[in-house]
Amino acid sequence: MSMLPVVICIAAYLLGSIPTGYIITKLFKGVDIRTAGSGNPGATNVYRTAGAAAGIATFILDLLKGFLPVIFAVMLLGNGRVLWWVLAGLCAVAGHVWTVFLGFKGGKGVATACGVFFALLPLGTLFALALFLAVVFLTRYVSAGSICGAVFLPVYSWFSGEPRVLCVFATLVGALIVIRHKDNIERIINGTENKFGRQPGGEVKNNG
């Protein structure tokens, strides 16, 4: 068997592992994102720690970490290799969540998974993104929007008749994202989750 699929998956993990939030916060603020805010190196914590530009840049780059490996897998491996496309996406998400560059402690995987599914399920991902934005607008909880999007996409994939391997993948990634938000879920239930854009003193704050 050609080693190309394996090489693509390894490259996907390494690309996913690039700690963009950590790097950008260091560049913008000279701060270790792991010691600021919630300690999460994702876009939301970067946003409140280093500002809107840094947060948006982190989200876009994290999204590309998921999108590009899958696109390259499709281009290099050709049609009919859905399993390997999925494995490339899985490796990218795993790299972000368990990055080798930060002692295997990374983000929650939302933006990178979004990139993966934009490549694999573009229409469903647009619906999930719309749901995310609606939930954040209504609740001011980024974490709630992320959880709703993570739950919606597997449901969409099963009901829209996507290949079984893709449905299973969406379900696994959705479950991973929900599990990674377990602390946020507890805070939402207890009424202690901070709302996006609202914090005493005017500083942007959210534990998502």
How would you portray this structure in words?
With 208 residues, the chain is an all-alpha fold. The chain has one domain (4-190). 71% of the residues lie in helices and 0% in strands. It is built from 10 helices and no strands. The chain is globular, with a radius of gyration of 17 Å.
List key phrases describing it:
single chain, 208 residues, mainly alpha, 10 helices
What's this entry about, in short?
The protein has 208 residues and is mainly α. The chain is built from ten helices and no strands. The longest helix has 26 residues, at 52-77.
Q: Topology as H/E string?
A: HHHHHHHHHH
Separation, N- and C-terminal Cα atoms: 42 Å
As for the number of domains, it is: 1
Report on the biggest sheet: none
Q: What fraction, in percent, of the residue positions are helical?
A: over 70%
Strand content: under 5%
Total count of helical runs of at least 4 residues = 10
Please tell me the overall pLDDT: 89
Gross morphology is: globular
Structural class: mainly alpha
Query: If you compute it from the alpha carbons, what radius of gyration comes out, rounded to the nearest whole angstrom?
Result: 17 Å
